[in-house]
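wait is this the right file?? whatever heres the structure
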């Protein structure tokens, strides 16, 4: 059954006068419903153009992104032998300002996706969340998008998953850093990660981050900060003089590359596998809840996520920040050139 819907709500502020204009809400509803349906069927590419002002570069860029997103999802699903069968987008924190014929919109999009492996009845559900800023222009009795910016949990510039070789990069471990490790509470990691994973559908804590920690979402990304929190708050590992969060996190706490180097150099983690998808596929079965996946592009690890379990097909699933993810298959949103770094945390 194909499912898609949209919920418009106001949180954390009041709408401006233009926000009460039902034409804005009707436009957003239709656009996000069409996007959601496209993730299921793959056939919405030709109908998306109605929502965009393609006379300007920003409108053309935004349209191309959504077309590429749908195409990627279909290619990824085919490569993984599964079908996306449900998609809902819930829009919250909607704020609208308008001068009549133009409007600026900010919102959070929380998307629920359901998928099944071909030939199997089990339904898997995952969530993604993203912050959007849009510029709209009035077009008759509706609107069109002239600009839209958001960090997409499902990638941005991809067409073909998991084939090309990449160049050898520098070693991850520079030197050993002796620390006392302690015992990792793996279930505690999962509980914390799924409570504080943020705006993604499925996350707890009213879709908010843990307010005890500074957010780096608008300061280069919050993925390593979140992963560090899960290991300390949930996993009960003790920070040290290198890996710490006081008024601001250390480099090893907040930077993805430094975080991975620290885990390996300190002995808190061992390297299970590193490489493009075919080179690490054999090690996936050894990943456990609480383990870490690093994502490397052009020789630099730019993102990390936390393993929270496995889906009905035995595929590892993750939680992450920026963009926010809840129970996503570990490789969703990454392309043929991505180098994966699989880390097993020591018990």
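ok assuming it is, sequence goes like this
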């Amino acid at each position: 059954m194909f499912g898609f819907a949209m919920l418009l709500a106001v949180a954390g502020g009041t709408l401006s006068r233009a926000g009460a204009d039902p034409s804005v809400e009707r436009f957003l509803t239709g656009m996000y419903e069409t996007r959601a349906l496209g993730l299921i069927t793959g056939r919405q590419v030709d109908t998306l153009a109605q929502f965009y002002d393609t006379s300007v570069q920003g409108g053309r860029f935004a349209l191309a992104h959504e077309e590429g997103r749908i195409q990627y999802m279909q290619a990824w699903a085919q490569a993984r032998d599964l079908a996306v069968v449900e998609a809902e987008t819930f829009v919250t924190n909607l704020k609208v300002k308008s001068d009549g014929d133009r409007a600026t919109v900010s919102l959070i999009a929380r998307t629920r996706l359901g998928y099944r492996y071909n030939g199997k009845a089990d339904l898997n559900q995952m969530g993604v969340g993203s912050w959007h800023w849009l510029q709209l222009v009035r077009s008759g009795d509706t609107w069109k998008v002239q600009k839209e910016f958001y960090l997409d949990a499902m990638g941005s510039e991809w067409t073909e998953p998991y084939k090309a070789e990449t160049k050898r990069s520098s070693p991850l471990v520079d030197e050993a850093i002796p620390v006392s490790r302690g015992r990792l509470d793996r279930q505690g990691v999962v509980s914390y990660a799924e409570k504080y994973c943020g705006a993604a559908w499925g996350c707890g804590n009213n879709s908010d981050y843990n307010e005890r920690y500074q957010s780096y979402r608008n300061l280069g990304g919050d993925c390593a900060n979140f992963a560090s929190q899960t290991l300390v708050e949930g996993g009960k590992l003790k920070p040290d003089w290198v890996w710490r969060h006081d008024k601001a996190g250390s480099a090893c706490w907040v930077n993805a590359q430094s975080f991975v180097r620290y885990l390996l150099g300190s002995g808190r983690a061992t390297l299970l596998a590193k490489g493009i998808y075919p080179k690490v596929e054999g090690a996936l079965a050894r990943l456990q809840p609480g383990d870490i996946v690093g994502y490397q592009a052009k020789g630099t690890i730019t993102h990390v996520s936390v393993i929270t379990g496995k889906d009905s097909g035995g595929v590892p699933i993750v939680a992450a920040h920026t963009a926010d993810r809840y129970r996503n298959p570990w490789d969703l949103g990454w392309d043929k050139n991505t180098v994966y770094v699989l880390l097993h945390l020591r018990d």
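Residues 80 and 138 are 41 Å apart (CA to CA). so i think its the right one actually
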